[in-house]
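Students often ask why we bother encoding 3D structure as a string. The short answer is that it lets us treat folding as translation between two languages. Here is a chain of 179 residues written in the first language.
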Amino acid sequence: MTGKLDERVRAEMVALLPRLRRFARGLTGVADQADDLVQAACERAITRIEQWTPGTRLDSWMFRIVQTIWLDERRAAKVRTGEGRIEAAEAAEPELTVDGVRRMEAHLTYDAVRRAIAKLPEEQRVVMMLVCVEGQTYKEAAETLGIPIGTVMSRLARARLGLSRVIGDTAGNNVVRLG
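And here it is in the second language, the structure alphabet:
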């Protein structure tokens, strides 16, 4: 199977798309950029499928590709502009329903958390997305990122503390606890 994309691997890649998109959206903060990032990652994975070892986790390999492309794009942006900042677009407004107040509160809470995550340092945001959003274990996240499990744990702890501070600052005494 090495060197070619068989139907089983193709189906597994397709099934990963929603998770990859969520992860990319967490990195970029913008849906269009996330879609472009996932497309680039899929293209790279397909053209370099021989670099993946059958029997290992395809999802970890794909998450690493997404992260690598994102980091490469950030570095290139820094070289071009001297800043490398990517502005986050506002999320689309939710539909008004009978229970519009609850939907709006949920939207505002989601938006506050999304903005707080965007403020985290890159290495903390990546760990937060893999563990808290994608549901990877600490061990899986460590393998995906190629770092020790203790580093995953400390980055996640710092990310949670950072979110608590940011959300606590914007929400008064209401502090959101993750995990």
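Translate back mentally: Residues 84-98, 171-179 have pLDDT under 50 and may be disordered. Keep this in mind for the problem set.
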